[in-house]
Design brief:
Layout: E1 5-10, H1 21-35, E2 39-45, H2 52-55, E3 58-59, E4 66-70, E5 73-84, E6 89-95, H3 97-100, H4 117-135, E7 141-145, H5 152-157, E8 170-175, H6 188-193, H7 210-219, E9 223-226, H8 233-241, E10 246-247, H9 255-267
Parallel strand pairs: 1-2, 1-7, 2-6, 7-8, 8-9, 9-10
Antiparallel strand pairs: 3-5, 4-5, 5-6
Length: 268
Amino acid sequence: MEDKRILYVSSEVVPYLAENEVSLMSYDVPKMINDQGGQIRIFMPRYGNINERRHQLHEVIRLSGMNLVVNDLDMPLIIKVASIPKERIQVYFIDNDEYFKRKATFTDEEGILFPDNDERAIFFAKGVVETVKKLNWVPDIIHVHGWMAALLPIYLKHYYKDEALFSETKIVTSVYSQSFEGKLNPEMINKVTFDGIPEQAVSLLKTADYESIIKASILHSDAVIIASENVSSSLTKFIESSEKPFLPFTPKEKFAETYTNFYKETVL
């Protein structure tokens, strides 16, 4: 994977958030490609429970200062950056006081999903693309992890479809076991179609539960990786019937070789 450019876009990444399937793989896969001589960038939201001082985040003024429109509201985009210790891997953080200042990731103290999680996902998707455009960094692959990042393939295939920077870029989505119960805001589909995305392309978002969001992401991806051993049977069947190239679940001790071969032989 020498000199290949891979952009990792994730809901969660260690060491900035607690260890789980998504956050661990969102660190292990980029590290593996970095060790092989690939050029990588990682993007994640800057949740308020990330300790900026301990992890040495700092704002990148030249990348910040843009406003992104979410559901007809102008929301300021702030970009922060940090380096994973000892790995020389840069992580970019998408930030906005309205969406990400609260001291939690997806739910309140009662475990209730935040009512604006849909808007946070839209802002995150747009923020990643706009920042990569400013960096003028052309990724060969964009690899998406976690549901908060799942709108990125949709926005790239529709909202940014005429963006020359991404004309050759392939999108891979990793699918994990269910990470939230319940549904996001029922207005989610209207907020996405507000951006000119055809309703028939995202009709799954009418349900706005975990599986529907992931299914919509799969439909807009070029390839899929089953990243959990216990992905639901309905999601597995959907992947198998989607006609997208997919990689079955691979145990952690074997993923490096398998993922590399999948990138090289199937995606690129």
